[in-house]
């Protein structure tokens, strides 16, 4: 797969206006269009489902019956995986027709430093300019005694110390792009430094550390859900199991630290960071939840009655997309990235939703 930074257009949402004065524009003319996820036999489209149908709803508006463990991709939310898979296909074709790359970025699974740089630099910047910044940072860090493998967050911070300040670092290695399209916005260089400092401050220095936070959060949520089901059924819970709270609290702490960096409050770059680091699971965030919520709302509007039960939470929505990926025979990270790009477009169509990050 081709890196998003070298082949795709700048994000159409979150205020991703391009800067004609910096970087070379346009997409790579040699890039091959990404093929959408496919499967041999797709279910019939469901009336009212999918993005762009006008069935917009907030996540808290939904109440549907949960008939199975939402952490089990093979049987999630009473067999809705097929319906979501069909919607994923329609969304992929719509994005492809609009010229939006649905292929996830290749990323930098061995370098948290490069993941941080690309995650912060990508919004509102031409992909070719982002690729140039990443290449210069990689070359600089390799020239300081390291290699492309194992370039961690402290190494990135050391490059700022050596440069003297954010302005000098941007002049030597990057560009003067800012976190928003206003002159007073902080430099993206400042956001990179603050994000790296935030990760180091919460003990995340490598991509392995970052992915462990996601993995532990997903496992903790599954454990908590299983415990709740056991208690509801009157079954005893093994006392040797560790509590789920610390892992989820760590996830929230690390995410909050990242989002506190300049221009990263929307959480969109956090999602990109995890994909760049090599996350194979769907990242449980508001975009994932909004996508599945809108689909279920469309199903209810199409004549299926609402039933008592639980609404899909962020982790349940992520599990539902993973189940859809299994139906399609596509990697979960590809479906995740496609949904994320789709939600960027949805956000761009909403007045006042051009968020930074």
Give me some keywords for this one.
357 residues; globular; mainly alpha; 0% strand; disordered C terminus
Protein described:
The protein is mostly helical and 357 residues long. The radius of gyration is 21 Å and the shape is globular. The chain has 13 helices and no strands. The longest helix is centred in the middle third of the chain and has 26 residues, at 207-232. Helices cover 50% and strands 0% of the residues. Helix 3 runs antiparallel to helix 4 (127-143) and helix 3 packs across helix 5 (153-163).
Order of helices and strands: HHHHHHHHHHHHH
Structural class, by secondary structure, is mainly alpha
Low-confidence stretches: 1-76, 237-243, 305-310, 349-357
* Average pLDDT, all residues: 73
Query: Count the strands?
Result: 0
Helix content bin: 40-55%
Radius of gyration, in Å, reads 21 Å
Number of helices: 13
For the biggest sheet, the summary is: none
């Amino acid at each position: 797969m081709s890196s998003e930074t070298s082949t795709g257009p700048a994000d159409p949402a979150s205020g991703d206006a391009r800067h004609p004065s910096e970087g070379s524009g346009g997409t790579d003319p040699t890039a091959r269009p990404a093929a959408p996820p496919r499967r041999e036999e797709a279910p019939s489209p469901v009336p009212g489902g999918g993005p762009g149908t006008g069935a917009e709803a907030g996540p808290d508006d939904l109440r549907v019956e949960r008939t199975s463990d939402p952490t089990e991709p093979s049987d999630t939310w009473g067999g809705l995986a097929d319906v979501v898979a069909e919607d994923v296909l329609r969304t992929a074709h719509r994005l492809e027709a609009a010229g939006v790359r649905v292929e996830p970025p290749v990323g930098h699974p061995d370098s948290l430093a490069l993941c941080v740089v690309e995650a912060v630099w990508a919004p509102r910047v031409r992909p070719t300019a982002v690729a140039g910044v990443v290449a210069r940072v990689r070359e600089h860090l390799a020239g300081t005694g390291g290699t492309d493998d194992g370039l961690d967050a402290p190494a990135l911070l050391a490059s700022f110390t050596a440069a003297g300040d954010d302005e000098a670092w941007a002049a030597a290695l990057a560009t003067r792009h800012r976190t928003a399209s206003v002159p007073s916005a902080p430099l993206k260089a400042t956001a990179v430094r603050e994000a790296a400092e935030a990760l180091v401050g919460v003990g995340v220095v490598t991509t392995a550390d970052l992915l462990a936070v996601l993995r532990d959060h997903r496992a903790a949520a599954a454990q908590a859900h299983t415990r709740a089901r056991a208690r509801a059924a009157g079954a005893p819970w093994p006392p040797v199991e560790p509590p789920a709270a610390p892992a989820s609290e760590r996830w929230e702490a690390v995410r909050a630290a990242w989002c506190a960096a300049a221009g990263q409050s929307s959480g969109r770059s956090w999602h990109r960071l995890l994909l760049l680091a090599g996350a194979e699971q769907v990242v449980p965030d508001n975009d994932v939840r909004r996508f599945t919520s809108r689909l279920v709302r469309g199903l209810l509007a199409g004549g299926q009655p609402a039933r008592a039960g639980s609404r899909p939470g962020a982790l349940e929505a992520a599990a539902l997309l993973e189940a859809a990926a299994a139906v399609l025979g596509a990697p979960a990270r590809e479906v995740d990235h496609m949904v994320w790009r789709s939600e960027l477009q949805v956000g761009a169509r909403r007045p006042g939703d051009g968020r930074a990050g």
